[in-house]
From TrEMBL:
It comes from Junco hyemalis (Dark-eyed junco). It holds the Pfam family Cyclin_N. Transmembrane segments: none annotated. This is Cyclin N-terminal domain containing 1. InterPro entries: Cyclin-like_sf, Cyclin_N. One of its GO terms (biological process) is reciprocal meiotic recombination. Residues 54-175 form the Cyclin N-terminal domain. It comes from the Eukaryota. GO terms for cellular component: site of double-strand break.
Length: 321
């Protein structure tokens, strides 16, 4: 189940080391992530994102902080819980009794979800911690102590069964890439391509911005949707179609890095956007719009759009047709 390391050893983790990976490995990993992202977006269930609301994400982040888990673990736990809950709801709904009416069936499913939700959330954090190569994993004793502290009485056997329920529901396919992996890989590619940016400070800022995107997900993507459509009241069909944008990890990573560069080193912002466009194929306009949606509540009235307008015409990124 893993053991905890004394707190003194925890301070030794200095985060990722950049510019230490062979270019062929970087290229292969980038292709793999891009392919994985495209496949994920193309197979999205209609309920994608339903279990990423702010309260749930905040709960997981605070729990990860309480247990001194590393950065990838908390994002992995959020994505793991999301995938599990959607699959579980689908299975429960498909297996509902034929003699029950729609309302009573959904009420039964909802009650089952509510009764076990916190337990399943803790199990997802546990499983995510076991995927990490870091120093700390969540033991059964640690998980049970926490559950008891918030008035849930579970046994070790029930905790184990909960972990197995998550694993079985997802057919043991739990080690998937998170947006943080995309961010870190793109930072590595930017450095290799000669984009002169302070890697470690930018990485730290990108993590904070990624947290912001998770915690204020609906606000950011609502702003982005209205910008893209130039319409403050999008239709239900437009909102449904926008789901692929909300779940695009590559776009999220590019937007986070672009925003981070704008805040940390605005003089390099257009260069970074050009590099990100060449690496991912995401248009400068899309990067600009995403950065605007993120940076507006962070830094106020000074936005990438305004910054871009201060440059001479020959220095600007040409608009996409």
């Amino acid at each position: 189940m893993g053991t905890e390391v004394p707190r003194g050893a925890r301070g030794r983790d200095s985060g990722p080391v950049f510019c230490g990976v062979a270019p062929e490995i970087i290229e292969d990993t980038l292709i793999h992530l891009a392919t994985e992202n495209e496949q994920y977006v193309s197979e999205l269930p209609e309920q994608a994102g339903c279990f990423k609301e702010t309260r749930i994400v905040e709960f997981i982040f605070l729990l990860a902080e309480k247990w001194h888990l590393d950065l990838p673990t908390r994002y992995q736990a959020v994505e793991l819980l999301e995938r599990f809950m959607i699959k579980q709801v689908e299975q429960m709904w498909d297996g509902r009794g034929s003699t029950q009416g729609p309302r009573s069936s959904w009420s039964s499913v909802r009650d089952q979800i509510t009764n076990t939700f916190v337990l399943r959330l803790v199990s997802c954090v546990q499983l995510a911690s076991k995927l990490s190569l870091h120093y700390s994993r969540v033991t059964s004793d640690t998980a049970l102590t926490f559950l008891q502290s918030i008035k849930y009485s579970y046994t070790k056997q029930e905790l184990l069964e909960s972990e197995l329920a998550v694993l079985n529901t997802l057919q043991f396919h739990i080690n998937v890439s998170t947006p943080l992996a995309y961010v870190e890989l793109l930072l590595e590619v930017l450095g290799y391509n000669g984009c002169l940016l302070p890697a470690k400070p930018l990485h730290q800022l990108c993590v904070q911005l990624l947290d912001l995107c998770y915690l204020t997900r609906e606000t950011i993507y609502d702003t982005l949707l209205k910008i893209a459509l130039e319409n403050s009241t999008p239709s239900k069909v437009q909102i449904a179609r926008f789901l692929t944008v909300k779940e695009d990890f590559m776009l999220l990573a590019v937007g986070v890095i672009s925003t981070g560069v704008f805040i940390l080193s605005p003089g390099h912002w257009e260069q970074a956007v050009e590099h990100l466009n060449c690496i991912t194929g995401i248009t400068p306009q899309s990067i600009l719009e995403f950065s605007y949606a993120v940076v507006r509540p962070v830094v106020g009235s000074t936005t990438p759009e305004q910054h871009r307008a201060t440059r001479s015409p020959q220095d600007r990124i040409p608009p996409q047709k």
